[in-house]
């Protein structure tokens, strides 16, 4: 689930990069909300459990992650207080994206694999994370469809199939146009 969140926020960042100013505000809000929920459930549930399960050396990874969350939250606060008209707005989102990219890589390549090596019941932890995520989303008034899901892929998919349908229709039209043209010649 945490990895799904990572993919979903990456998709939103990509959408933000291509978006014009009128869409940037809504996208930035969604990015900030998603990251707020995600960082909070990790801080409340994942990181404390990880510290318990890890030895001192591996604990350092968790402290690093917490410090990175702190920096991300400062950026999130600035973005939430700003508007796309501010010259700093887009650069703030870009820096947040770079931070998150780095942080996600460390979690997925180091922290999560190290957790798998411990005695920690990851299934149980996973369901606790999912439960807390739903609770926080409800508190923050985030709708289910605004929930961390790869929306971009879905909409691209429907665009593609709509385009295919249009193409197919155009194809059959031109075929019948061709056949009536050839009938007319005969
Ligand atoms: Fe994290
Ligand atoms: Fe994460």
Automatic annotation (TrEMBL):
Residues 131-186 are annotated as: Disordered. It comes from the Bacteria. Residues 2-115 form the Hemerythrin-like domain. Residues 169-186 have a biased composition (Low complexity). Gene3D superfamilies: nmb1532 protein domain like. Residues 151-168 have a biased composition (Basic residues). InterPro entries: Hemerythrin-like. This is Hemerythrin-like domain-containing protein. It comes from Steroidobacter agaridevorans. The lineage of its organism: Bacteria, Pseudomonadati, Pseudomonadota, Gammaproteobacteria, Steroidobacterales.
